[in-house]
Amino acid sequence: MDMSRIQPFNRRTATALAVIFLGGSFAFAGPQPTNSLPAKIITTDGVTYNQVKLDRVDPDGLLVEFQPAGGGTGIARLKFAKLPISLQKQFGYDPGKAAGYEQEEKQAMVALAQKLQQAEEAHAMFLPYDTSLRPSVAGAVMVNSSDPTLTYTYYDPDHRPAKLDASGLQHTVSLCEHQYECHADFDVRVMQSTAGQPVHFSIDKAVISLGLSCQFTLPQSPYDFVRIHEEGHGKIYEYFYRLGPEVAQRIGESMIGREFTASDSDFETAKAGALREAAAQVETQYVSRLDGVAKQASHYYNELTDHGLSNMDRGQAVQEAIDKFAKDLQD
Description:
Helix content: 25-40%
Number of strands: 10
C-alpha cells in the first residue's frame, strides 16, 4: 500500500476532499449507531420516511438516511418532539436535555453572527458609498432561506468517478461538494427617463432568496469514518449557511437607494438590464463572503484531521475550525 504523503492542498478549490487509503487498519473514536429503526417512520406532522437507516443520535433527535420518493439517498434530521412515543422511549428522549442542546447551538450561532457583524462594520465590507445619502432601509429588505439540500451518491470502487481523479490529490476516494445559492429581486423607481437618453433607476426594495446544496460522493459500503469525515465538511458549510441571512440582509440594505443606469433605447430592456446588474452584485458579494470563510474553515478542518487520516474526533475538529475562523474575523 502506497503511504506516500498527499500533495499540498489547493486553496483555490471549491471542493472539500477527504484523502484516504482503501485497505489497511484504521481506528475511529466512538462507536457508531446500529440500524435499530423501523423501515418506515411517520412523524407527528405527517411526513413519511422510507427505508430509514440510523446515522447518529443527538440529544434533540436522530440523523437518518432514507430513500426519497424519486429514488437515490436522502438525509434528514428528525426531532424527537415529532417522533412517535415508542422511538422517543427507545432512544431515551429527555426534553430538558434536548432543549439545552438546542439552546447551546443557538447561542453559538448567535455569538458567531455577532462576530461577523462586528468584522463587517469594522471593515465596511458592504458599504462602498456614502451611507449618509442612503434612504431608510427599515422593511425594505426581505431574506428567505430554504433548508439545505443534501445528496449522497455511491459509486463502485472499480469505477471511480472522473471528478475524483481530477481532484489533484492522489488516492482520493470521497468528497463533499457544496454550492451557496443567492437570487435577488428588486422593486425599482425610475429616476430619469427621457427619450433617447440613458434611463436611471433607483432600488426601493429587495427580496433575497438563499439556498445551499451539498453533494457527497462516496464509495459503496464506505468505512464509517470516511462518511463521517465528509459530513464534517457538510456541517461547516451548513453552519455558515445559517449565518447567511444576516450577511444577505446587510448586502441588501447596502443596495437600497443605489442608482443604476441603462442606455438601451427600449425601457423594458433597460430596466431588465439594470435589475440583472443589481442581482449580480448581490449574488457576487454574498457568495464571495460566505464561500470564502466556509472554505477557510473547511481547509483548516482538513489540516486538523490530516484529510481524514487522523483519529481526532470529527465534532471537535469541526468546532475548532469554526472557532478559529471566528477569531480571525476579529483581527
